[in-house]
């Protein structure tokens, strides 16, 4: 009902949410997984236009923990973000921006 699929294995429970990305031109659905994550965050989406995205990981106070600019292609894009080991466990916010439009959601760092 909420666009999330749960996958349970003997080692890890993964919740993958596919969500509409309102306001980000060219991107209608986006999957961000796993959540919680340990060292890598994956973004999977179809892009109708080739362009650049600015991806930021923030703590709950809004402090920027990491920034990565990525170039996208028309069609399926699968981006793996390597999260620095010194980022503490807890709630983080991923922020995706293109041409001034911003989408953000919370993720848990394990």
Biggest beta-sheet profile? 5 strands, antiparallel
Low-confidence stretches: none
The share of residues in helices is under 10%
Mean pLDDT: 87
Dominant shape: globular
Structural class per helix/strand content?
mainly beta
Order of helices and strands: EEEEEEEEE
Count helical runs: 0
Span between N and C termini?
26 Å
What is the CA-based Rg, rounded?
14 Å
Q: Which range does the strand content fall in?
A: over 45%
Count of beta strands: 9
Major sheet strand order = 1-2-3-4-7
Walk me through this protein's architecture.
With 110 residues, this protein is mainly β. 0% of the residues lie in helices and 65% in strands. The protein is built from no helices and nine strands. It has strands at residues 4-8, 13-20, 27-33, 40-47, 51-59, 64-72, 75-82, 90-98, 101-109. It has a five-stranded antiparallel beta sheet with strand order 1-2-3-4-7, with no helix packed on it. It has a four-stranded antiparallel beta sheet with strand order 6-5-8-9, with no helix packed on it. It starts with a strand and ends with a strand. The mean pLDDT is 87.
What is the topology?
Blueprint: E1 4-8, E2 13-20, E3 27-33, E4 40-47, E5 51-59, E6 64-72, E7 75-82, E8 90-98, E9 101-109
Antiparallel strand pairs: 1-2, 2-3, 3-4, 4-7, 5-6, 5-8, 8-9
Please name the defining characteristics of this protein.
110 residues, mainly beta, 5-stranded antiparallel sheet, 65% strand
